[in-house]
Amino acid sequence: MVGEEGAFVLGWDEVLTEEELSTTLKVLCMSEEEFKAYKDQDSWEDNSEEEENSPLSNEALSRLKPPCKQLLYDSVLLTLESYRSDLKAEQDLLNNKDTYEKLSRREQQALHVRYGQKRILHQLLELVR
């Protein structure tokens, strides 16, 4: 369901691996009975028009059912804990011209990537609160 890397790709406005996240949340939030029925279907594809017509935009994420929102929230917290520093530390480093200029070009680029990732994750936390 999730792919080889076991990760989902989030953008500023929507989930880029929408189908994978949608299916994963659906399965993980099912009761045991619902999962057994779902597993016994001929296809794991969901044919409901409601879900086909509702991409996982930021607005759609904020309207998820509470168990799915909690699962996403907890997952984002775990992901943020895997970083060595928090969003504020990255922002402080970006704003400190002297310290920033002492970083190699590669370190500067990595800082920008980490900062962007953390901003997206914090945005997701706000959406699923």
Automatic annotation (TrEMBL):
Composition bias type Acidic residues, residue spans: 43-53
UniProt keyword Plastid present: no
Domain spans labelled Rubisco LSMT substrate-binding: 4-121
One GO cellular component term: nucleus
Gene Ontology MF annotations: methyltransferase activity
UniProt-listed GO biological process terms: methylation
Top-rank taxon, per record: Eukaryota
Subcellular location: Nucleus
Pfam family of the protein (one): Rubis-subs-bind
Keywords on record: Methyltransferase, Nucleus, S-adenosyl-L-methionine, Transferase
Segments for region (Disordered): 40-61
Protein's name according to its UniProt entry: N-lysine methyltransferase SETD6
Gene giving rise to this polypeptide: Setd6
